[in-house]
Structures are given as C-alpha cells and as structure tokens.
What does this fold into?
Amino acid sequence: MPTARAKYDGNKTWKYRVYDETGWNELTVRVQEKLRPLYPDQNATAAPPFEHPADTWATELLNKAHDAISDMQSRWRRLTNEQLRKEQAGVLKRLKKADECLSNLSDDLANIVGRNVDVVGCSEEIRKLIPGIEAASAKIAKLAKAKRKQDVENVAAIYMAVRILPMLMRDGITASATVNESYGRISNAIKILKFIGDALGIKLGEETWKKVILEAKPLIVQPLPRIKK
It folds into this structure.
C-alpha cells in the first residue's frame, strides 16, 4: 500500500506522498485513533477476531480519501513551463554534443570501440531526434500555465469531500459546514475531513474545509442508506 517520501523531488518540483506498506499501516492506526471518538455508534463493540467497527469505518474513509487525492493530484501535477523549457534546452544541448562527439570520433578510438559498434548509425539516429526536441519549444510556449501545488491541493480537497461526505451522510453524520471556534463548535464532518486531510498531506484549516464542503455539496449524489444486518 501507499513511510511518506519527500514533498519535493530532486529539482524542487512538488509531488504527492508515496507510502510503503509499513508507513501506510502506521498512518492507518493514527487515523483510526483520531476518528474513533467520532464514530456514529459509540456503543459498538469489537467481535474478535474482527477489528472494532470504528476502525473498519476509519480505514474505509482513509482509503477512499487517499484514492481521491491521488487521482486528482496525478491528473494535474506536471512540471512548470519554465522547468519544461529548461529540460528541453538541456536535452537538446546534450544531443547535439553527442552527435558532434560521434561525428568527430578519431580513427584510433573507433578501432578500439570495434567494428560491431555502429557509431555512424548511432549518430544518424541522434540527428533524427534533434528536430523533434527543437520543435518541443514551440509546443511548450502554447501550454497553459501549470497549476500551483496549493491550487491542486484545494481541488483535491473538494474531490476528497465529494467522496467522503456521502459515506458520512450514510452513517448519519450531516455534511455540516459549521465552524465557530469562539464557542468550540466545529462540525464532525469538518473534523473528520481535517483529520484525514492532515494525515494525507492536505493541511487545510477548519475555515478552508468549511468552504470545501460548501463547494462539494452541490456535486454530491445522495447516498443510499446502509443496509442493516
């Protein structure tokens, strides 16, 4: 399953978290502990060998949220146009240098390399690549501006809420966007979204989650009631 890796890759481009099995299991336990007091049926008990229903519920919410966030971030994450231009220029420079080196290979080095290595053919193939890499510059210039990490996270939060809120409503938790920190009134829906969002790296405040819920609610398909056994 999805310990979380760095927020940025080598060239400082942001990336979403990737988890190994141990890290994901540890994260799941932390989320279960956080959400247990918010489980709708506080009288529920575990029936060994099965886990407590609240933990099963929390795991289901976490998995659904992770799927939503990963899906949205993978759709929108890409290099900025400036990073693309820099990469394109670097690749073009290296290809031209490689072509120059192979085209001017000394007879002595060519003999050492051996007859089984098609130096001329390799050089020709590199030359075929160069026009395509050069043409990429014009295509990059026409690209829309890449979305900022914060923008993608906000969209991912809405997408997560659209997935999570029907599950909460199914279990009797209203999709309330109430936030009144002065009186300590924060809806359980916001608490749950924030707990899970924080765990998955979408660290938004309660007021922001309030806005997320308000944007997500018109997009929600009313959930079917849970079938009682």
Q: What stands out?
A: Strands lie at 179-180, 185-186. The longest strand covers residues 179-180. The radius of gyration is 26 Å. The helical segments are 21-35, 53-76, 81-103, 107-113, 119-141, 149-170, 188-199, 206-216.
